[in-house]
Amino acid sequence: MKTSYKGPLKALIDEFNKMPGIGPRTAERLAFYILKTSAENGKALLAAITRVKETVRFCALCNNLSETETCEICNDPSRDRSIICVVEEPKEVIAIEKTGAFNGVYHVLLGTLSPLDGIGPADLKIEELIGRIKKGGVKEIIVATSFDTEGETTALYLARLLKPRGVKVSRVAYGIPVGSSIEYADQATVAKALDGRRDI
After folding, report:
1. CATH fold label, 68-172
2. Who's near 5: CB < 8 A, 6+ residues apart?
3. Does domain 7-55 have CATH number 3.40.50.10800?
4. What is the average pLDDT across 24-32?
5. What percent helix, strand, coil does the chain show, rounded to 5?
6. Are 114 and 150 in contact (CB under 8 A)?
7. Which phi and psi (to 5°) does residue 38 adopt?
8. In sequence order, what are the residues at sequence separation of 6 or more whose Cβ sits closer than 8 angstroms to the Cβ of residue 109?
C-alpha cells in the first residue's frame, strides 16, 4: 500500500515543488531539512523570506532589485545614461557589475520571449524600455540576453523594434571563453567566434 505525505509536511513539499528547478525529490529533501533543523534556524529562514518580501522590490526605472523606489545604479550620477544594457533578470546585472567594465545603465526585461510557454512582448518590460528611449538621450542599446533560443529570439525582436527609433542596437559578443582552447569548443561556438571577429 502506497503512503503519501499529509498535512503541513505535504503543504511544505508542495510549496518547494512550485519553485523553478525544484523537482519532487529536491522538494522532499528541503522539507525534511526544515523539519530536522533547529527552531532557531527555521525562524531565521522565515525572517529572511519575510524581510525580502517586505523590503526588496523592482526599481521603478530599470526593474533591477532595489530596497528603494529606484536602485543604486539608476541613482548614481556618474553612470552614462546614454547607454542602456538590456538583460533578462537582475542576476545578470550583478554579473556584469562584477566585471567593472560597464558604466552605463540597465534595463531588466524580467524574462525572455517564449511563444511555446505563452510569453509574448506584453509579458516583458519592453514598453518601459521604449518609454525610456522616447524621453531622449539614449544613443545605444546593448542587448545582453542569453544565447539560447529564447534569448536570441528576444534579441532579434528588440533589434527590429528599436533600430527604427534612431538608436544604435548592439549585441554582446559570444565565442571562445577566455583561457580555453579552440579544440575544446563546440562547432556553433567556434562559428559564432569567427562571425564576431574584430580588428586587433
Report:
1. Dna Topoisomerase Vi A Subunit; Chain: A, domain 2 (3.40.1360)
2. 13
3. no
4. 95
5. 50, 15, 35
6. yes
7. -70, 160
8. 63, 86, 87, 88, 124, 125, 126, 129, 145, 154
**3 pLDDT tier (thresholds 50, 70, 90):** low
Burial 70-108 (b: 16+ CB within 10 A, else e): ebebbeeeebeeebbbbbbbbebbeebeeeeebebbbbb
- List, for residues 76-102, the tens digit of each pLDDT value: 999 999 999 999 999 999 999 998 989
The answer to whether residues 124 and 151 touch, using CB atoms and an 8 Å cutoff, is no
Helical (H) or strand (E) element with 84: strand 80-87
Locate the domains of the chain by residue range: 7-55, 68-172
For 109, other C-beta atoms within 10 Å of its C-beta total: 23
**Alpha carbons 113 and 153: distance in angstroms, whole number:** 7
**Residue 52: CB atoms within 10 Å:** 11
Q: How many C-beta atoms lie closer than 10 Å to residue 143's C-beta?
A: 23
Amino acid making up residue 193: A
pTM over the 0.85 mark = no
